[in-house]
Amino acid sequence: MDSSTPAIQIENLCYAYGRAEAVHDLSMTVQPGRCYGFFGRNGAGKTTTMKCLLNLLRPQRGQVRVFGLDPAKHEVEVKRWLSYVPDQVAFYPWMSVRETLDYLASFRANWNRKIEQELFERFGLDPSQRTGNLSKGQRTQVALIAAVCPETDLLVLDEPTSGLDPIVRREFIEAVIGAYQQGIPGQRTILVSTHLITEFEGLIDEFTLIDRGRAVLTLDADQARERFQKIRARFAEVPPEIDLKAALRVRRDGRELELIANGSGAELMERLRQHNPEALTTESLTLEEIFVATLKA
Amino acid sequence: MLFLISFKSGTPIYLQIVEQVKAAAASGALHPGEALPSIRPLAEELRVNRNTVAKAYSELESLGVIETLPGRGCFLKENHSGLRKDARRKLLIEEVDRAIVQAHHLQVPRDELLELIHERLDVLDDKRRAHEGKKED
Questions:
Q1: Could you give the CA distance from residue A72 to residue A49 in angstroms, rounded to a whole number?
Q2: Region of residue A237 (phi > 0: left; psi between -120 and 50: alpha; otherwise: beta)
Q3: Mutate which of A222, A230, A268, A283 to test chain B, going by most B C-beta atoms within 10 A?
Q4: Contact A195, A230 (CB under 8 A)
Q5: Tens-digit pLDDT profile for residues A90-149
Q6: Alpha-carbon dihedral B112, B116, B122, B123, rounded to 10 degrees
Q7: ipTM reported for the complex surpasses 0.90
């Protein structure tokens, strides 16, 4: 594997459950070292796509590659390079946390005990506790320990923080940054699917927005925040009709206007300025606001 | 030093870190030789990608604002511009032009803009004096 091979390459992926199409003609490339967000509503096709990467499902059309390999043909190699935190974490309930991690470690060539210890302390987990008695948050924490300790090149997180309380969600993300990202820069790739975008905002380098099985937007996060702007204008009097067709969305109330712009911010600002507004401000949309603006447009 | 990151500013996150260190250095809030937070705890605290913080620090290093001492961390440099005079001027011209364009759009006339620059320089001097005063206490 050379360094220019994408960590993940998905080309024209299609998958249907019977007649219900879950993923349609989806293409997406994740370069090594990136933290890639995979955003969509519930049922948008995120989990189906991820299952194809893990060979839990076989693509019906198109192809997926993980570090250049087909997960269906090279399942063992692919699984050696990646670790996965599923949306529903299940362990053998009679095993203790310690036994569970030892069991999972037995499948791995490498297991970093130092990081394991550090994460135990960070999460305040009791190794002797039976996994059947853990809370949902604690089960996710154990799953994250199991995913980080093998020090794989690719970490796949499927809705990892859904249903967790805000403190656990924050700790989860801090652990991903602190423990997983401490490897060689450019060699630790993360793919995270979520609809809780705000928490992951600072971590995301690039993202794909998926809706009803189709990729609707793929952008670098910084570029996205530059392109999507919210513009607010207030005039001394109710303004005449201004041509605002370039805006993604327009809200009006008397003398006030609020626009969402996708790449046409400068042009729209200029148009508004011609009518001498009393106040004219602009701010970037957050990734979550971009998600909402794009799917509701 | 404490940072404040905004996803709504339109400025890339790494640049926000770069600008805040530069501002702290210029106002004297950060002293020459003083340590910056290490990459890992800072990334965790801000909940941003480690690579973003690393990129900001390497940018600051190439600008000559900070230096990295292997195994010890990053520190504000004594003379925090390693760039040649013409390169420094060139960087500043871009910023000044941006302010001039903005002033034009906000209909701030020439005299008022110049006055404002004097005023802001005085504010910065006051801040720096205040920081120095505290250091001597």
A1: 14
A2: beta
A3: A222
A4: no
A5: 899 999 999 999 999 999 999 999 999 999 999 999 999 999 999 999 999 999 999 999
A6: 150
A7: no
Q: How far is A100 from chain B (nearest CA, A)?
A: 27
- Tell the residue number behind the tokens 């011209």, with chain if given: B93
Residue B22 and residue B28: Cα distance in Å, rounded?
10
> Hey, what domains does chain A have and what are their CATH numbers?
8-212 (3.40.50.300), 224-296 (3.30.70)
B interface with A, Cβ–Cβ < 8 A, is 5, 7-10, 12-13, 40-41, 43-44, 46-52, 54, 105
- Predicted TM-score (pTM) of the model is 0.86
Cβ–Cβ under 8 Å, residues A30 and A6: yes
pLDDT in tens, A8-51: 999 999 999 999 999 999 999 999 999 999 999 988 999 999 99
Q: Is A31 on the interface with B (CB under 8 A)?
A: no
Neighbours of A160 (CB within 10 A): 25
The residue with tokens 């034009």 is B104
Two tokens, residue A76: 């063992």
A36-51 per-residue burial string, b: 16 or more CB within 10 A, e: under 16: bbbbbeeebbbbbbbb
